[in-house]
Amino acid sequence: MSAPISARPAGFFRDVQSVAIRALKQLPRDLEFVIPALAVPTFFLIVNIGALQDVANFTSIEIDYKAFQLPVGIVFAVTGISRASALVLDIQDGYFDRLLLTPVSRRALLIGLMVSDFTLVLGLTIPVTALGFAMGVRFPTGPLGVLMFMFMGAAWGVAFTGFPYAIALRTGNPSAVNASFILFFPFAFMTTTFLPLESMTGWLGEVARYNPVTYLLAGLRSLFVGWEAGELVKGMAAILGVAIVSQALAFSALRGRVRQK
Amino acid sequence: MNLIRASALTRRFGDNTAVDSVDISVEPAEIYGFLGPNGAGKSTMVRMLCTLLQPTSGTATIDGLDILKNPGPVRLKIGVALQDASLDPKMTGRELVTTQGRLFGLRPGEIRRRIEELAPLLDMTAFDDLVGTYSGGMRRRLDLAASLVHNPTVLFLDEPTTGLDPPGRLLVWEEIRRLNRELGMTVFLTTQYLDEADELADRVGIIDHGRIVAEGPPSELKRSVGNDVVVIRTNGRRDEVEAALTELDVVDRVDSFDHEIRAVTGNGARALSPIAVALDQAGIAVSELALRTPTLDDVFLEVTGSHLESEEP
């Protein structure tokens, strides 16, 4: 006769794995969530290039405008992509309570979702980068530059996820999570989306100077010039800075949600 | 040793005291029924005992483990099916049970074995379908199976058959009995259904407005009301009815509640005729005269003064 089966803590990494696997399995069932993430950057990439390519000739852009716009496409593809909507449904359906009734590490509940997010946003960078290649964009930094380009994009995507997760966990309200998309606009448009920083004047130029996306875009664009350590470090620092703020908010919201109120 | 023990457990939400200084103790392998109307505090009690909700005051232990000091180890001991089946409609039944097993530290082989063992409870033909396509009964049974995947010592069931059709209820009842009989599992069951508490529970705690108002085995609780009850409904004056019945030797006690008067008697068959005659002689028009054995509703009526208005399935 076999030994009776009994529960035991699974361990932090297995908890993260379990949560991530569940989230990843749900992705093909949430195509309505994935498709816009591809359609929006594709649209903006094509429209921005078509509308502004000639104007860009009068600016100080050192690289081809298609290459200038490709990082914007990446930022549009990955910013705000998270399982926050699914999390808020878990809260509403009671499934989140079911998870809390297990010995799962509470931090793993969020980290597992972020592992899934990283996989997704990394996946989203592939078609956007491929579109760039199809438009004739080339990386002088070689395959490693391509990988760095995709990795930085995905890292930015995950760094940003803290905001929608914080809103999901604080409010438990799907409308509030959907509205969190508004956060995307100042990050994505009050920066060097269309023109380089030197060409931006007035208040917008000043705001762009403090927008971390400016440094992320500069880091990504530097990969079309060569290996420029300074730009990459500033880009990574911008990602890290946003990650620290957004993840602090998200984990604080998680603590509030799982505390036995 | 008591497997579940609560001492002066209290939970307030603002000015509302949902659970008010409740003491309970549940023995190993016992089915304890927590019976009460909607809003009586049953779910709040369960949520405190299973570590989802912090008590305002009081203490509780599960298998000797304090729910506040050792919530993690407590979770390893308990299985919980909450009032609304807490399932993800975008997972399949198999994915849901497997995820549950993984989070409880079970290895893949152990999870497969548990799924085989739980198969009688599950609809295996739909096990690989999305939960969103399940009927209410299938969801309830999957919820129960997911709660059992790690072989808990104590099973908390918060209104497990609410919304189920009669065959679904019977299936869940049978599974609860089997778990208790064959595995010696302790079950803490909340319900608003009198027959459910009567059928399943070894002991019943009746809760009303957050307080336990009666506790004991169902048979003892019912016996405390009397052997038989004659229920009289009349449009006449209640004091006249009471006066007419109190004079009868066959009637032990007369209780009035709203439009209903109950005559408690040692022998209902013998008392029925004299009661009818007495009411007729007093000129009281009777709209209903019924004889029955006491139910848990009579117990509830006796201790609270109102019916347990359960929505019968």
Shape of chain B: elongated
Taking all Cα atoms into account, the compactness measure Rg of chain B is 23 Å
- Give the termini distance of chain A in whole angstroms: 43 Å
The quaternary organization reads as heterodimer
Termini separation of chain B comes to: 36 Å
Give the helices and strands of chain A as they follow along the chain. HHHHHHHHHHHH
What's the tally of helices of chain B?
11
C-alpha-based Rg of chain A, rounded: 20 Å
Provide structural commentary:
The complex is a heterodimer of chains A (261) and B (313). Chain A is mostly helical and 261 residues long. Chain A has one domain. Chain A is built from 12 helices and no strands. Chain A is elongated, with a radius of gyration of 20 Å. With 313 residues, chain B is α/β, with parallel strands linked by helices. Chain B contains 11 helices and 14 strands. Chain B has a 6-stranded mixed sheet, with helices on both faces. A 4-stranded antiparallel sheet of chain B has the order 2-1-4-5, covered by helices on one side. In chain B, strands 12-13-11-14 form a 4-stranded antiparallel sheet, with helices on one face. The two termini of chain B are 36 Å apart. The chains are: A mainly alpha (261), B alpha/beta (313). The interface between A and B is large, with 35 and 38 residues.
